[in-house]
Structure formats: structure tokens, C-alpha cells
Amino acid sequence: MNLEQLFNHIKFKHVIGTFSDAQINKITQDTREVESGDVFICIEGANFDGHGYAAQAMEKGAIAVVARKQLDINVPVIYVNDTTKAMAMLANAFYGYPSDKLKMIGITGTNGKTTTTYIIEAILKGLKLGSGVIGTVGIKVNDTFIPTINTTPDSITLQRVFKEMDDENVAVCAMEVSSQALVKGRVWGVDFDVAVMTNLTHEHMELHHTMEAYQAAKKLLFSQMGNSYKTAKVAVLNKDDETFEDYREATVGEVLSYSILDSESDFFATNIHYFESHTTFDLVYLNETYAVHSNLVGEYNVSNLLAGMASVFALGYSLTEIVATIPSLLGVSGRMELAAKADDISLYVDYAHSPDAMEKVLATVKNIAKGKVIAVFGCTGKREFEKRPIMTKIGIEQADFAFLTADEAMGEDQAEIWEMMKPGIPEGATNYAYYENRVEAIYKAIEMAEPGDIVLMMGRGNDTRYYDSNGWIYHFTDKEAAVNGMNRRTLLQN
């Protein structure tokens, strides 16, 4: 593709200079990636402005630059009103509109996006279909893994990956769609066939500031699905979440609802039974009942399973065959994951780091515990100060004993974090202790545990990077600390 062919895809533009017939190598917004034959796009970010790097891009071999501000360089400049939107349009065109060739499932919500994406991938593998995944854990093209920085990558990366997926015979791509990505236009031009809403709870206020703005950001996924009935579009919506009616009205597509509370929903889970290692329930759809056995634990995972099964079903696959894949799903790493067990004491790790997620995972553990529930948690540094006392209150009230400690401080003084947590301590509460050192808190929790008890470590899941108050970054996992703590307990007892 040459410059003239590429820029024919942008209707409103002002070109300074003359296009050559040279074939384009690639398009990029990162000067570090620029090579001879590239098109460079000037993106204005929070911490940088690509217009200041245009000359550098030209020196490295860029044959054209897309800009909004006036530039004085010796290669053709294509001026547009919005370089971010232009980047999405050009990326789509350059890679041949690859999302049109895939079945695309977009998953948004506060909690459950990663788990639902994992469930969809597992179902697709069970159906022997080529699968693609884009999300928090990275990118997967069938069984090939590609690490990423953002949950939802930029539009150029997305379209390049979609092209790779199409080349590798991927049938369906399931991708997490963050509210930040929706607001910043990273998914402009992605042709979603199915859009999924898990839930909406208090999160990301540092970006959106209000719950109303946060809800509006998530709603963009559904309102941007298209306004045509030439191709089927389906919104898979959680009827147990307060966003249901708002999002139902936002989409032109058909709505497939799911619920664990409302028997009038399309996908309804009833006769739910929770066990330490698995969950069983009956799925009811159009008066037909399907018995579901899952290795995922907890009420919230029943909702995630409903969302995942409904998403694949919405693409036209057999519900009977979909349900048959569920027993083979393994647990999701870092989400209600059994880290260690000895002496009838179970140690679980979970990512829960919001009030809603904490409530749900604590409720799950209380359902399966034979004895006490001992919680270990802290609050992340430099984000959402207002939820710190709320999380503290939930942890102390809903656990039999709570060890409050550090989470990833991210350079914030741990003492300041603790001071913001303190107001959440219920008046007269004595079932808690504070240890600044997270390893010590985990060890103390394990020491306290008796047969039948569950120790639940929340906030970090399987994260391996720890960013402390002093700005040091080092390897640390709750799982390793749990295993070491259990070994330490055994040695002390002997």
C-alpha cells in the first residue's frame, strides 16, 4: 500500500507536499519504532506531544507525518482535526479491516472481565475453534502468548494483532475493553459482534471522577456497536446489575440477559451449590435446563460463567456443546486460587481490590469455610483514596479476623495509606490487627488459623511485581508467601 492509497481512507484532510509511490513499511505513533518507509502519527498524550518528535521521525526515515499542529519538516504532512481518530482509521485500512473477518466479543465491566474472557477462550478451545484473547494477562493468538502493557492496547497494535489472528485462522477473539480504552478511542473501528457487560462498581475514580462518567464510558461499547441490522449484533447484559436498563437502551443489537436472581432473564442460574473445589448449578434457557459443573468457585463466578456461555451462544454455537466444555475449565490463576492446604487449613489468593469485589469473594469463602475466615488485605497506593475506609470496614465486618497490611504502595508512604484506612474500622471492633509488612501479616494469619479455617489474601492475586513505599520494585507473590508461611507453621509446630 502506498501513501495515496492509505490516505484515501481519510475524507477530510489537508496535504502539504507530494506523495511518493513508495510502499509503506508500517504506521506508528512511537518514534522509537520508526524505520525507513514508515508513516508517523503525532499523538497528543497526557505526558507528551508527538508533534515535538516529528522531525526526529523524519530523520529516522518516516515518509509522511500525520499531524494536527503546524510542522516545518521536509516530508509530506497530512493535517487532520483529530490524530487519534485518524490513527484508528489508518490502522484499520492498513491492515485490511481485520476485525471484520473475525467474530469479535468485547467484555467490559468493573469486575469479572478477565475471568469471563478466560471462560470464553476455554469454551472455544473445547469447541475446537481457533481463539484469540486480548486483555490484562496479555495477548494470545491460539497458543502463542504476547505480553502487553495496557489491558486494551492502542488502535495500531490492535489492528496488527487482529491481522495476525486472521492469518492464524482464529475464529473468535475475546477482548477486555477498559473504560479508559473506550474514552480514548483505542477500539474505534473494531467491529464487535457481541458486547458483554459484567457489572459496574466503584472503581477508576482517578480517571472518571464520578460514577456517572464511569458508567457513560462503559456504555460506549454498546452504543458504538453499529446501527444496522445487516449483520447480527448482540449485547450480553447482566440483569442483576443496575446498568441493565440503561445499557439495553443504548444498543441497537439484540439483548441476551443473564442472572442468578431473576428467573425471567434469558440465561438463568438456579439450584446453585458451592463447594471448596467446585460449583454446580442448573442453567435455564427457553424452559430447557442444562446441568453445569464448574471448577470455578463462588457466586460471582456463576455470573461470569453465564456471561461467557451466553457470549459464545450469541455467535450461533450449540448451547449443549458449550455446556459440555465447562467441566474441563481449570481455575483462573490468582482468582480464588488455592495457594496451599495443610492440616485442613486452606490458603486462597484473589485479586479483589475494590469494595464490591471484596464483598463477593468474602461471601464466597464464607459459603465454603468449615471454620473461621481470616482475611489479609491492604490498599493500593496513589489511587482512589475514598475507597480505603470502605474496604477496611468490609474486611473487618465480613471476616472473622482481618489482618490489615500493605498492598502495592507504588511510592506512596504506607503510613499515609494506613491513616486513610483507619476511619473504616467499625467502632468497638477488636477482630483485626495491622502489620505494615505484608509477609509478616500473612505469616500471622497462618499462625492464627485452625483446622477448618480459610486464610484469604486479597488484592494481589498472582501479581509478581511489588512496588513499595520507597519506590523499590521487586519480586513478591502472595502465593509464595502463603506456601512459605505454611511451611514455617509446620516447622514451628514440630
List keywords for this structure.
six-stranded mixed β-sheet, 3 domains, 16 helices, Udp-n-acetylmuramoylalanyl-d-glutamate--2,6- Diaminopimelate Ligase, Chain: A, domain 1, alpha/beta, Protein-Tyrosine Phosphatase, Chain A, eleven-stranded mixed β-sheet, UDP-N-acetylmuramoyl-L-alanine:D-glutamate ligase, 494 residues
Secondary-structure blueprint of this entry?
Layout: H1 3-7, E1 14-16, E2 27-28, E3 39-41, H2 54-59, E4 64-67, E5 77-79, H3 83-94, E6 103-108, H4 113-126, E7 131-135, E8 138-141, E9 144-146, H5 155-167, E10 172-176, H6 179-183, E11 194-197, H7 205-208, H8 211-223, E12 234-238, H9 244-250, E13 254-259, E14 267-274, E15 279-285, E16 288-294, H10 299-314, H11 319-325, E17 337-342, E18 345-350, H12 355-368, E19 373-377, H13 388-398, E20 401-404, H14 414-421, E21 432-434, H15 438-448, E22 454-458, E23 465-467, E24 473-475, H16 478-493
Please, could you describe this protein's structure?
Helix 3 packs parallel to helix 5 (about 155-165), helix 4 crosses helix 11 and helix 12 runs parallel beside helix 13 (about 390-400). This protein has about 500 residues and is α/β, with parallel strands linked by helices. The longest helix has 16 residues, at about 300-315. The model has no long low-confidence stretch (mean pLDDT about 90). The chain starts with a helix and ends with a helix. The strands form 4 sheets. The protein has an 11-stranded mixed sheet with strand order 9-8-7-10-6-11-12-13-14-15-16, with helices on both faces. A 6-stranded mixed sheet has the order 17-18-22-19-20-21, sandwiched between helices. The chain has a 5-stranded mixed sheet with strand order 1-5-4-3-2. It has helices at about 5, 55-60, 85-95, 115-125, 155-165, 180-185, 205-210, 210-225, 245-250, 300-315, 320-325, 355-370, 390-400, 415-420, 440-450, 480-494; strands at about 15, 25-30, 40, 65, 75-80, 105-110, 130-135, 140, 145, 170-175, 195, 235-240, 255-260, 265-275, 280-285, 290-295, 335-340, 345-350, 375, 400-405, 430-435, 455-460, 465, 475. It is globular and about 80 Å long. The chain folds into 3 domains: about 5-95, Udp-n-acetylmuramoylalanyl-d-glutamate--2,6- Diaminopimelate Ligase, Chain: A, domain 1; about 100-330, 3-Layer(aba) Sandwich (UDP-N-acetylmuramoyl-L-alanine:D-glutamate ligase); about 335-494, Mur ligase, C-terminal domain (Protein-Tyrosine Phosphatase, Chain A). It contains 16 helices and 24 strands.
